[in-house]
Amino acid sequence: MNNLKEKIKNLAAAYSDNFIDVRHHLHANPELSYEEVQTSGYIRQRLDEFGIPYKVMAKTGVIGSIQGKNPGKRVIALRADIDALPIEEKNDVPYRSKNQGVMHACGHDVHTTCLLGAAKILNELRNEWEGTVKLIFQPGEERNPGGASILIKEGVLKNPAPSAIFALHVHPGLPVGRFSFRPGKVMASADELYFTIKGKGGHAATPHLTTDIILVASHIVVALQQVISRNNNPLTPSVLSICSIQGGHTTNVIPSELKMMGTFRALDETWRFRAHELIKKIATSTAESMGATIDIHIDVGYPAVINNEKLNDEARKLAEELMGAENIETTEMRMGAEDFGYYSQEIPGCFYRLGVGNVEKGITATVHTPIFNIDESAIKYGMEMMAWLGAKAGY
Ligand code: NI
Fold first, then answer.
1. Ligand 1 centroid vs 311 CA: distance in angstroms?
2. Residue 61 and residue 16 in one domain
3. Which of 99, 126, 208, 318 is the most exposed place for a label (fewest CB within 10 A)?
4. Cα(108) to centroid(ligand 1), Å
5. Closest by alpha carbon to 379, among 135, 177, 97, 139?
6. Which of 300, 270, 40, 360 is nearest to 146 (CA)?
7. Percent of the chain, pLDDT > 90?
8. Active-site hit among 31, 376, 381, 384
9. How far is the CA of 79 from the centre of ligand 1 (A)?
10. 333-368, pLDDT tens digit by residue?
11. Domain housing 271
């Protein structure tokens, strides 16, 4: 067992080119959320080839299982998201997306590749570690309700029930060869806000005969700014942005209906739902005080990603052992969202970042852009870290 680390590193080095090819295949054939039919088939094909059993869940999800020694001793889940984004790729590379308007611009091709690589390594070394590793190839990370929530409803965290779950995410701001971890709050919850404001429209020259809902909406936008600034603990970040106002069509008609949309983000679940009530109350009372009616719909999205402190500490120590302490950093908190939050609400989770950037090679584009790409030497590191955590963490 002592040289398990070396064995994992050797296999990752030996297979690295093969898995770069796997990434090229996935990158060239991206599919949108919940439509990952070919991707799912490709993952199953690879698992068949490795001799790893699996089952299909949530239509395109693939749940594999690798048993080490004493399979009942511990169960660890490793998760990769498999879906792509509606973005037209602008990279001029041989493995450029073949699906027009669809691109792996958030690195989910890399996540899937690293988990496949880790699966092959863990399976070959299954006599050298204990417990069971559950592989979760998850659809639909990029779109509500989030593939994670569907898989959990279908029982992915049962039979057997993992005691911990890990996922990696590419980070172009982090140099290749490095990883970053963070205990506690990592990413925000994200909820969508929809408002419909109605009033009596009319001639702009006779405002006294109308309810000016443009003015009502303006007051609401301003009033909503106090939700966070006057009610949220300033030590816990939160964001409320109104990003769209649609109403009216000309210079001299006061409209009778107007729509607004926005996003609300938080890192505390209690505050999150209290804020929803405040948003409704402030928007409603402002509208009513001015004679308008308002309909508010809050589409509740992903919960915040909270890393279990003990699990994160353990994973970080293991990462330092694998990569050297100088290559492990602390991730900053972000107000972006990830449906990994659904898992971390249920069981101890650790969401960590894989460095894929390389300033010298000009690989700096951020995720969700048409020119996002990675330094592919990151794949070897991503594979070996996943395998290492799968074999060693969660005791
Ligand atoms: Ni992503």
1. 22
2. yes
3. 208
4. 6
5. 177
6. 300
7. 99
8. 376
9. 12
10. 999 999 999 999 999 999 999 999 999 999 999 999
11. 189-299
Q: The domain that contains 259 carries what CATH number?
A: 3.30.70.360
Structure confidence by residue, pLDDT tens digits, 263-275:
999 999 999 999 9
One domain for residues 141 and 263:
no
169 alpha carbon – ligand 1 mean position (Å): 7
Q: Are residues 271 and 315 located together in one domain of the fold? A: no
- CATH classification of the domain holding 91: 3.40.630.10
Say whether both 242 and 169 belong to one domain.
no
| Terminal-to-terminal C-alpha distance of the chain | 16
For residue 274, report the distance from its CA to the centre of ligand 1, in Å. Answer: 28
How far is C-alpha 391 from the chain's CA centre?
24
Asked if 376 is an active-site residue, the reply is: yes
| Backbone φ, ψ for residue 353 (5° rounding) | -115, 140
What are the distances in angstroms from CA 74 to CA 66, 272, 300, 318, 393?
12, 34, 34, 17, 10
Q: How confident is the model at residue 176 (pLDDT cuts 50, 70, 90)?
A: very high
Q: Are residues 382 and 350 in the same domain?
A: yes
How far, in Å, from the CA of 81 to the mean position of ligand 1?
8
Which pLDDT band holds residue 196 (cuts at 50, 70, 90)? very high
Mean pLDDT over the full length of the chain: 97
With a CB cutoff of 8 Å and minimum separation 6, the contacts of 298 are 191, 192, 193, 194, 264, 276, 279, 280
Q: Reply yes or no on whether the pLDDT at 395 is more than 90.
A: no
- How far apart CA 337 and CA 107 sit, in angstroms, is 15
Please tell me the predicted confidence (pLDDT) of residue 147: 98
Report CA(172)–ligand 1 centroid distance (Å): 12
- My answer on whether 71 and 217 are in the same domain is no
pLDDT reported for residue 1: 46
Q: Where does a domain end: 269, 299, 329?
A: 299
Provide the domain count of the chain: 2
Question: Is residue 194 domain-shared with residue 67, that is, in the same domain?
Answer: no
Q: Look up the pTM and report it.
A: 0.93
pLDDT, tens digit (0-9, with 9 covering 90-100), for 272-326: 999 999 999 999 999 999 999 999 999 999 999 999 999 999 999 999 999 999 9
* Chain segment 27-41, per-residue pLDDT in tens: 999 999 999 999 999
CA–centroid distance, 80 to ligand 1, in Å, is 10
Q: Which of 15, 95, 302, 352 is catalytic?
A: 302
Active site residue 302: yes
Q: Indicate the residue among 299, 321, 348 that finishes a domain.
A: 299
Question: DSSP state, 71?
Answer: T
